[in-house]
Design brief:
alpha/beta; 2 domains; six-stranded mixed sheet; two-stranded antiparallel ribbon; 28% helix
């Protein structure tokens, strides 16, 4: 066990210098070990000991599922040419849905093939959500939270938040915005035009799915009670979605 002497026990400047260097070395080593441990696990569900009280996870086990959605007939802003009709395309979106799961689901799962910033390297992340877990059967449908990442990015950048909210009784839909992700980055104009459109489309899509018999979201989520969280360009989209104008 390392013992660092108290200030009153330091007898001379050599002792003082040695003690300070030793203490700094221990602090740096501890930080490196903690960083290495977190990097090895790539966990998204760690809570720092100095985090505020509301940062703690809730009591619900959670699941996560992937939905592929298509918003038809959208303007393909990247192919617009002066004097020609606006080109259109069916805009695909990948949605990751985190939700409260049935009791006994477990509390550990993985996110595989997550792209890093270079758009090529893939890693595995670990968290609380269990892939395709059985949804809970609530007495009343859960509120909805839509999460929108920055440019470029992907939904995994805020997966710690989506998991946290889901453990507290929310259905959380995180959008992978087409032409705005690490592995699918296009010119910035697409993000400017489509960010708010994506958000409102997803809200309508989840509302529709929540009313479908046989869909795992059926009866699970109340889209009439929705919050919208955006980071960076996701925040820009949230402002537009909430009624802000663009000049």
């Amino acid at each position: 066990m390392l013992r660092i002497p108290l200030l009153g026990e330091i007898r001379n400047e050599n002792d003082r210098e040695h003690t300070v260097k030793h203490a700094i070395g221990v602090a740096v080593l501890s930080g490196l070990l903690c960083t290495a441990a977190l990097a090895e696990d790539n966990r998204v569900d760690e809570i720092r000991p100095d985090a505020p009280a509301l940062a703690a996870h809730g009591d619900s086990p959670i699941g996560v599922r992937t939905i592929s959605a298509t918003n038809p007939g959208q303007v393909d802003i990247l192919k617009v040419e002066a004097g020609k009709d606006l080109p259109r395309y069916d805009r695909p979106l990948t949605l990751e849905v985190s939700y409260p799961a049935t009791a006994g689901t477990g509390s550990s799962g993985t996110y595989d093939d997550v792209f890093m910033r270079d758009g090529v390297t893939k890693v595995q992340l670990r968290g609380k959500a269990v892939r395709d877990a059985e949804p809970a059967k609530p007495d009343a449908a859960y509120p909805l939270v839509i999460i929108s990442h920055g440019y470029p990015g992907n939904w995994f950048l805020l997966s710690h938040l989506s998991e946290n909210l889901a453990t507290k009784g929310y259905v959380v839909v995180s959008i992978d915005h087409t032409e705005s992700t690490y592995d699918n980055k296009a010119a910035f104009g697409s993000t400017l035009v489509n960010r708010s459109i994506d958000q409102t489309f997803v809200l309508d899509a989840i509302d529709r799915l929540s009313k479908e018999d046989g869909n795992f979201l059926g009866g699970l989520v109340n889209a009439s009670d929705t919050g919208l969280v955006g980071y960076s360009m996701g925040g820009y989209g949230a402002v537009i979605t909430a009624g802000g104008g663009v000049t």
